[in-house]
Prior knowledge:
Blueprint: E1 9-12, H1 16-39, H2 44-70, E2 74-78, E3 82-86, E4 92-96, E5 102-103, E6 107-114, E7 118-125, H3 132-144
Antiparallel strand pairs: 1-2, 2-3, 3-4, 5-6, 6-7
Helix pairs in contact: 1-2
Amino acid sequence: MQPSSDRYSSEITPELGLRGVVLGSGLVFALLGAGVLATLPGPLAVRALAAVLWLCGSLASVWRLLLTYRGIAGLRLYSDGSAELIRPDGRRIIGPLAPGTFVLRRLAWLRVSVPGRGPVGELVAGDPRTSQQWRRFQVICRHVAAC
């Protein structure tokens, strides 16, 4: 069934490629952070421990994000600033947009506060010239919901 929108909401389907960019950048920055910690002055054991702890924490965050992404098949944004995360089985989780959400012409970073989990971030893209959904999404986000 095709997602539909009315004049008060817009449904966006996340792209696997953009999710890969988010997860990949998390891995790259985890490695860079460990490299920086390993080159700081101080005892080798302390630097190694700090780098390992940094990597463990960073990889755990990337893993949690991957598991979260597996549980989200779509997003619906409403004009009152609330959003729904649509699960692959069709169930919906409702939560408000969280601080840190921003919208550009062809790209948006959405943060939705999920009860019991905290904020979930999703990078989405669209072309306002060819996608009515994306235009509606931008109008809701920029003018009505004050993203």
